[in-house]
Fold each of these.
Amino acid sequence: MKPILSLQNISKSYGAVRALHDVSFDVPEGSVFGILGPNGSGKTTLLGIVLDVLIAGSGTYSWFDSMSPDAARRQIGALLETPNFYHYLSAFDNLEITAAIRKKGKDDRTPILKQIGLFERKDSRFQTYSLGMKQRLAIGAALLGNPKVLVLDEPTNGLDPSGIAEIRQLIRKLNKEGITIIIASHLLDEIEKVCTHVAILKKGDLLLNGPVNEVLVSEDQVEVKAADMALLQQALQKMDGIRKISGSEGTLNLTCEPSVTAVEVNEFCIKNGIVLSHLLLKKKSLETKFMELTNKG
Amino acid sequence: MKELLAIEWLKIRRFRTFWILTGLFVVLLPLWNYEISQGVIRAGGGKKGVNFLSTQYSFPEVWNNLGWWGSIFIMFISILVIIIVTQEYSYRTNRQNIMDGWKKLQFYHAKVYLVMVLSFVVTIYFFLLGVVFGRVNSGSFTGVFDEFQHTGYFFLLTLDYLGFALLIGLFIKKTGLAIGLFILYSLIIENLLRGMINHYTELPWGNLLPLQASDELFPFPLMRQARAAMMAQTPSLSMTVYACGASAWCLIYYFTCRAALLRNDW
């Protein structure tokens, strides 16, 4: 699939602070692409550069196979850091400005305001909105004029749990309709639940990127215990598909190949004359994986 | 140009501060001049003083006189320009406009066009006020187009003030600080600089400082007569030099802001 956005060797510094260093990756068309990283890892800087509000120190990027940047931006709905609107104008008037700049009709406003649940407040001034409502309006503005791509920087900021779930559903629905979504977040949960692809940043370096199921392979661990621990360890060392055995507090932790199940471990032990007194399958969370990745080095 | 201005209009048409400040300008400028023409300010104090300024409302004096007061009242519109520009930064809508598809230059030109349109409309208003005051006080339209170049000067003065306000707004970005610096510069700093420069130069080159260059196009009404009498003794620069100076400043503001906006992060 051809990339919708392609970055080549993007670097950016703020004085002595290195915000991004030689970052290159492609965002495939039709993906939900997560940009993941702790606070200050360069996610917003990266999005600011591809949206033309920040200037890269070096490197290049191109949207839609080298479309002119401003024409490309009119096909992109973007939310960067905060909801940015004229405080003294209503949602309706603010969206009229967005539509005019994007060169789209303003008829979209009513269905969009209904979709984001702000239609009743369409004539209230932006400054009277709660944080969650402002965030919804920003997402609504991004949706104006049927964009091909959505760029969402921390889209669930300020939303309550039901709001977060709604956004997640909305992202899935829009993606099904063929919209590519680029989403930056420090919330793993958000990325894990909706993204098809991910790029992980740490202090401006791209640690890795690719499809979620390749990049974030979660290795399962099986925890076992038996009366004779030494015998158990000896036996399991002969079992296929076990990568590593480590012991702690009277239990053995087995790091297994993805194909190995707890049932197979149990069967193997019985065959070798060992009765397990404890068997527990531990799913390694994405969070552990992320911490491992971002804490390295 | 039309498209950019249409979007600027969407931004300001429901902006209360815009209507209040333009309203104050529209109402106070004629009211103030009406009171003076009726002899409210008199030399010697009280009602028995000499009503010397009211002589300045006939054609062609009315043009210079109105322009001189206009150069004070234009502060309202200058502050308005600063507010319009700096609030884009405080709302971060400058960024959003770019993300939504404007080029940085389009964002900038939208503001430049707004300044030009404001200057044009204010000049038309100045012209209408001049015609009305002149007609009422002269009793006829005789000489209405004498010294008509003042209408052009007034456009230049407005463009100079509003262009300077745009520059301050774009560079300072914070509304309060920008307004404070603008007022401080126009009332105090520029006068200090002008005094210093003029002290050391034979010709008053200090009069060519950004806002002073256009202020010089409208000398204080009575000073104008006094100056004409003293012209032979005091070295001075011609109106053409001041008009060129003010135009040059407008170009300098334009290119300085343009270069800075294109070079820097938003």
Note: The CA atoms of residues 203 and 235 of chain B lie 6 Å apart.
Amino acid sequence: MVKETMGIIELLSKVHILSVITFLPLLAAAIIIFIPGKRHEIIKTVAAVFSGLSLLLGIIVYIFFDGGSTSLQFVEKFRWIPKFHIYYYVGVDGLSISMLLLTVVISFVSVFASWGIEDRVKAYFSLLMLLETAMLGVFIALDFFLFYVFWELMLLPMYFLIGIWGGPRREYAAIKFFLYTLAGSALMLLAMIALYYAGGKTFDLVKLANDFDFSKHAPIHLFGMTLPFAQTLFLALFIGFAIKIPMFPFHTWLPDAHVEAPTAISVILAGVLLKMGTYGIFRINYTIFPHATEYFAYAIAVFGVINIVYGALVAMAQEDFKKLIAYSSISHMGIVLLGMAALNPMGMNGALLEMFNHGTITAMLFLSVGVIYDRAHHRDLYRFGGLAKQMPVYAAWTAFAFFAAMGLPGLSGFISEALSYLGALKVFPALTVIGATGIIFTAGYLLWTIQRVFLGPLNEKYATLPDINTREIFTMALPGFFALVIGWYPQLVLGKVSTYMIHLIDIVTKGAHW
Amino acid sequence: MNLFSPYIDVLKIAPQLTLVVFILFFVIGELVFRRKIVFGWFSVAGYIIALIFLLIGHLYQNRVLFSYQIVEDKFSFFFTIFFLLAGIVISFFSFDSAEIKRDLGGEYFALIMAAILGMIYMAGAVNFLMLYLSLEMVSLSSYLLSGYTRDDKYSAEAALKYLVFGATASGIMIMGIAYLYGLTGTLNFSVIRDQLVSGIFPSFTLLTILFLIFAGFFFKMSLVPFHMWAPDVYEGAPTPVAAFLAVASKGAGFAIALRFLYTVMIQGSPLSGKLLSDIYHFIPVNNLDWPLFLGIISVLTMTVGNITALNQTSVKRLLAYSSIAHAGYMLMGFAAMNYIGFYAVLFYLVVYFLMNIGAFLFVQVVYNKIGTDSIVKYRGLGRRTPFAAVMMAIFLFSLAGIPPLGGFIGKFYLFAAVLKSKLYWLAVIGIANSVLSLYYYARIAKMMFLEDSHEKEKVPVSAAHIFLFVILGFPVVILGVYWSPVLEFVKIYSHLFLP
Amino acid sequence: MPYNGILIMAVILFIIGITGVMVRRNIFIMLMSIELILNAANLVFIAFARAFADPAGQVIALLSITLAAAEVGVGLGIFVAIRRTHNTVNVDEINLLKH
């Protein structure tokens, strides 16, 4: 049995499985360009088939990934631009494997969530597929340059997807998203090049993490200030990632982008893109700047708590259904920040699991907003009411998603939030207590929303609304499956990630090698 | 020196002579051929023949021609190819231009060719006499070209402004050259360099002279404070001419600035030796701090260019300010004073050539149909001309430096050069500018794709223009993914020969 | 050095020329001011050429005069076009292109 498994792993490595998963959607995009624009069904089918293939292969890789090992698996390394030491270097470890799974799941879901698109279908699906390639690339890249290219590659499709198919203020939202993210990645670019020269000319993230100690590097002189090298670069990278998370005070692009984006794009945005911020911090900041990480851990926790409480309070004040979910995302990403700052096994595992769970749960939340918006054509929470009678199945699914987001025991959100809070409690007791009030606020706004939308007397205008259809149920069921299963069997994810996450703590605190 | 050497040299400049022959032919060709397109094809043929002669002649070693007036080395070879290709592209560009009148073909292509001939000499000039002559040759042709549509008010005005600015700038430069001549007793680059290295000159005097000479260079490169002509000229001149000035003329400015600064104004002449390693750091002659000065000019130029571009209503004008900003980015490579900076400028010029001409090409395609380049008229072009609009989007985002497009790689090397020299302030301001620039590039993309107009009529793209879009657009994408060959090329050809 | 006077003269000419270009608004006068700048440079060249007994300075001065003539030729051509399209010789009134 063991031998067979080894054989399959070898086979998977030999066929460059990670590259195949990543570039299948790009191939789909290329195929879609050559399909006549009027053949909507064919275009959609191609997108579904290719992202389905990516999903299938992603699950296979996930199954055969050895969760007991801290080493990189399915590694591929080719010279790309040898004269500048740039490699095409990809691989997965415990950190990226969970995000890989999340990305293929959410992308697949978003293809079906986009089934209703009728305007410029060809452009939409080729951009969506390009976006999937870029997202997958970010999670498997082990060369900083490659990582950066994929990171930026996301921007263009995202800009057009929000800008062309979005809501009434889509142009503003799209350019705001673009500029914020670009500002962040601009800092990342400078930090990357500075690391290249400080670290003996390499973009190899593993080498940068293992072979160099940047805490003793000569300081940076900038505008008359003398700044310590490691801390400055840590911050430059951190701000780049924090904008993506989005961490308070860099969060203002998120509500706009979400409100204007079409449903499927909101799902991707909340489900995958936000995770890239925290993923980047884990992948790059934690491994390359261990000392600076410890130095800033408390600050990260503080911002995490601000995110939790601020996000929840602002969510409570929202009248727009989608904006409410957007702010709840900010709140939940705060939990990730708090957990990751704890630097103990519970907190780190909790943070990573929360990233995964939030990805699936928020996807459900946005899908459910999309369902009601498609029918009622508005999202004003005060203009609904009593929909549970009219759309019982829809109400049940939405309630399920809400309970998962609330962290109800038995659903996935509970496990990850509990782990994050418990981990943080050991290190930052006072902060965690403040942060934990977020749970109450969250429960508050979510329950209140259920009450406003589903309970009470039925608004007569909506007496004819059809219930959720099979396609929509299908899109919600896939992430819902994970929300339910992880609630009972968290080992599904933790089994693959926890060894690496505990090792990551050693990297940060004990100077262990990646 | 051999008395006959000048006559022998004549044979060695076959590419340039080819251009001369064609220019002369254009002058009388009007008598025979009446259609513009004929001259267009003739000029393309001329550039190709010159290119063939160049490639044959390239088999020879570095050499000095006409009693130390010009050299032929790897660097001049690179730029000669650059200018000849620009000539070919601009010829195709002009084929279907509504602005260039059909009955006035010969002069137009002759002037373009004369300007290119001047640029080729500029790239090889190692003597201030030759430098001044070739620079003026480019300038005079450019003045006429920008005023080419002579019945058009805007075009005439552009030509006037260009002339006044240009003549003043070159006047200031020749004054600087005169005093440098007084200081060193020669006009020859290599002798001047020997004098500067061995003699002690007051650095205040030297810097003053240097700034005077810079006036001429800055004008061609459209750097602050000699940038004011660019927006007016680009807006008023016919679109092919604007593209030509933005790319070829600016390239010539960079060629001469690179040659002058990196042969005369640095300690030693390392670029004439073997291939340098990436970490090679140049030292300015007599420790004159011209790199810092150029760094400050770079910051000013890119900031002025980007901020002014933000609220332009004419796309041509916007591209003019963007090209000013790009000159500022390229100047970062000078300030870095290392070998990466040197070849990064050449690499950037290659990418800039592709994406900037491409952007102007789109402006022309739209102008041919709707007769304006006003940004609000770009609404909904994504539906009216999908192929060209997608290409334009590629050019714009490449100009903004978004990976995986060529413009990003160009900027990457410039920033690498700056950070290699630990000029963090320059890098931070440069990157902030780069982010800022996205706003106005994305604004055009927004108009084309995100907004709709009631106009539904298709905008036609002629065959020549499709051809150009393809040969300009695909390299931009490919260079963003795999740029090794071009990088190796510019590294090999960043060799300055100093006799 | 006996050439000091000439050099100072050249600088004065240069400054007058620059000022003329910047201050005067008649195209003719501006072209003449540019000529002054060029002539200032020519003066310096010739002075140094004599001092060094080197022909290069005289050569560049001669060529510079030729170029100046060509420049004025082009300038006058443009002047005619401006005169026809704008009906003025005052650059302040030639302002269709924004500043």
Note: Residues 345-376 of chain A form the longest helix (32 residues).
Amino acid sequence: MIRYVIRRLFSTVIVMAVVAFVVFTLLYLTPGDPAAVIAGDIATDADIKRIHTQLGLDEPFLVRFGRWTWGLAHGDLGTSIFTNLPVTHLIAQRIEPTVSLTVLTLIVAIAVAVPLGVVAAARAGTWLDRGVMALSVLGFSVPVFVLAYILILTFSVQLDWLPVQGYRSIRDGVWEWLRHLILPSLALGTVYVALITRITRASMLDVLAQDYVRTAQAKGLAPREVLIGHALKNAAIPVMTIIGIGVALLISGAIVTETVFALPGIGRLTVDAILRRDYPIIQGVTLLFSAVYVLVNLAVDLSYALFDPRIRY
Amino acid sequence: MATALPAAAIPAAKSMSPMRRRFRDAFRRHPMALVGGVILLAMALVAILAPWLGTVDPEAVSPIRRLKPPSAAYWFGTDMLGRDVYSRVVYGARVSLIVGLAVALLSTLLGVVIGLVTGYIRALDAVVMRVMDGLMSIPSVLLAIALMALTKASVGNVIVAITLAEVPRVVRLVRGLVLTLREQTYVEAAIAAGTTLPRILARHILPNIVAPLLVQGTYVCGSAMITEAILSFIGAGTPPNIPSWGNIMAEGRSLFQIAGNLILFPGICLSLTVLAVNLLGDGMRDALDPRLARRM
């Protein structure tokens, strides 16, 4: 168990190192000279050369990579070219809407998808099952921003029930905060629900065919108890795995969702950075989101080891 | 693949090959796959025949006719520069289909080459797979955005960026398959008989990974179309003058409350096309992997 945890932590470090290397290489290949940008319009060649030396831009690739990693370890993601502010500072300013959106979506999606998958598996082959599966294929196919606009046009423009765009901080009242996140979460969560429903159903079908489920039914347990207590518990691992892997979908989707709903989050920061070619922000966000993804999946893997007594490493 | 053996071992009734029969049976069980195929074929025809489908120049600007609602003259209305949205959407099918197809082909090709090499050369395996793990940890849309930020906007660059983001998943699939296949007795027999490595790869390994690759390729195609639209939508994709579905929607972004048609028509076309690809993928998985089909 301890050995497994150590091994898993070690592989996480390696993966993060690869991610850092890829992101740094992208930074290294970035067109344009940051020194010239910092020096400004009236700088002489000598000025630019001096800044080059100051920033260590004329040093070899690996030395710069080492220096950059050292900065990372101290929480330095670089400086935005456009605003001249530290990237960490800009991200910290924008983190609340993104965390609100993704965490809310995650919770709602799991709460919807797992029961749907369980019911579809329990009623496999019926119209209910087919309906759920059809919705799942549809959920995979409608891109998040198309769905977002359909939701806005229906619930905000036509019915006028919910705000069209914008964000309210949770400190200004939970209801206002929630009202502004309902449509974004619905739009963002649909793909995720489709994915989790599908895997839950598949995993449940596997488990429902096992002998111990038949035993449980034969000894007269209520169908609900068999389904939840015996089947779902044992079907949980693939579901947990896909919840972890699916976080990548949430992150990619959040960038688009924030753009459509004008949420001032990290996704919006990224899109603005693309338009201004503010590379340090793009790379900082890439690194941050990849780290979140890796850590979530690490937590999922470790939770098996903790919660599933059958797993011995 | 072990599951492919029993079906292949049964002598083919009449003249139909077992593979074709399996496809036919799957389509029968999965009528929606047929629907997907028909929609996709229709979209391909629309893309190819775009100039003859009552379209005008999709880039022709006409300020006096801007932001017209859908009508008999302008089926999908006009945008803020007075361009005909119907023509733009029809031509937009070309971009989506080209990107989807090109990414599916390229990432499969690259994935097979890297996957075969890593699956066979132990020394490389550890290194390459750690790199792939790292690449897979960067959400694919973000990796594509970061790559697009380095180069200038063009359809070719979009294809390269999305391909690089999709390759690790194909590599992982191929490597996994190769690792199980190389332990099969018929491969051992081939080695014992002195068959050369290239021949083993071509005769024994490749034919057995075609089926899962075909299924994976379909899903890559669908996801690439969505990624292209996302990239264009947030301004990191195909150049704005090229009518792609993502671009048309990006232009409609600030106007969607008064001109929803700018978003809805390309959005529906994109969703329909991706849906068709996914339905086809599900049907193929049924046809080619009966074991998985029952579960999903």
Note: Residues 1-13 of chain B have pLDDT under 50 and may be disordered.
Amino acid sequence: MGSTIFLSAVVLIGIGLILGAAIGVVYKFFEVPVDPRVELLLELLPGVNCGGCGRAGCADFARALIGGEAAPAKCPVASQEVVAQLAQVLGVEIGRAAKQVAVILCGGDLTHAKGQMLYNGVDDCISASQVAGGPKGCRYGCLGMGSCARACPFEAIGIVNGLAVVHNEYCVGCGKCVDVCPRGLVKLVPVDAKVHIYCKSPEKAPAKMKVCDIPCIGCRKCVKAADEGQFTVNGFLVEVNYGDYPRPDVIEKAKCPKNCLQTCRGHEEFEYGKSIGESA
Amino acid sequence: MAQESLVNLLELTVGAMLVYNFVLARFLGICPFLGVSKKLDTALGMSAAVVFVMTLASLLTALIDVYLLSRSFVIGGVDIRLNFLQTLVFIAVIAALVQMLEVLLQKFSPALYRALGIYLPLITTNCAVLGVATLNAGSGRNVWESVVFAFFSSLGFGLALVIFSSLRERLELSAVPRPFQGMAIALITAGILAMAFVGFSGLC
């Protein structure tokens, strides 16, 4: 009995010592020196690994910062103060990047867009768009199945009455939703551009009006109401020129006959989901 | 004789992978199975890391078992076996091995480290790795048999993980009734998957 205890103690202590020494040796001789600034930067960065900077996560971005391959302001999530702190750690210029938010250029919710069929398949926009164009009549509009909402790391997109709506106060402009939308409706715009034309269909106006109550019919009232160059006309579709965007008062002046021209706030509140509420 | 070794080989390979699948038949390594199976990429990374660690760890633990713990020491006329130290020693060895691997990988293969790095600390306390070591020791396999068994066991773990994560990716898109959403439907799926794997039980 005594010798069993003795022997097991010896074996355990021996193994412990050997393992400890081995770990020590490995750490001593093979350790890769990590730049201590990486840790510092990582603490400052948001740490959500959204990939909005174009890098594979915050750690990769931190390494790129130290390597001088990226500017601190490339992080779309970090606030101005955080960016300033990052720049301070690195001792470099901030680098300019205007804050952007996503906007989904479609107003066709279940009340305003006419359906063409009952879609009962996989609850995903990409799948739905491949099945005869999805449930809505408009082949260019929002499918409302929330592929963009699922892609958003910040839960800034809600599906309201069958229409994806970006909540600007949560959106950081990382652009993840842009690639996901099979209809290409999501656009990153400057945060100060409040007026949008919520339609992206290039069809002729009568065709659009058959499937939707609030399409852009290309009447150009907004173009006339705004300064030159603030809108671009493209056949039956008018687009906001986000390089020189119009002010919100243009909505009053233009009196868009289809209510397609809206501020993002107005877009959120304009009858959408009043009766049904969030269905996501 | 030849037939016997063939049966043995079958049990070590196909048996370890499919019939006695670590996750679905032995219920080992359930936490990574449920934890990192939400996306196929992470499941693949985790599987690769487990294959890597499990094979190496079983080599080490089998060596220790065969040459130290399963031997009888005679001290003062008393026959002493240290089998009872198995769990203790194996845990320490596996944990130390993973620690060292992390540093070595970072040094010699940064690409591999980037792919597996975040999963390595998770494996330190993975019960499947300890399970394979104790199973090897319990059935008296020699070192090479142990390594082959561990390799195919970990492949089986990876297979289960990859299948399950693909199922879960598909589940994301389905209209699951509210009471079943999330982990509930995942567990039910895992149960059905395990039942499917029972179908392999006649193989060897």
Note: The interface with chain A takes residues 64, 68, 73, 75-76, 78, 80, 82, 84-85, 88-89, 92-93, 96, 99-100, 103-104, 106-108, 110, 172-175 of chain B (CB under 8 Å).
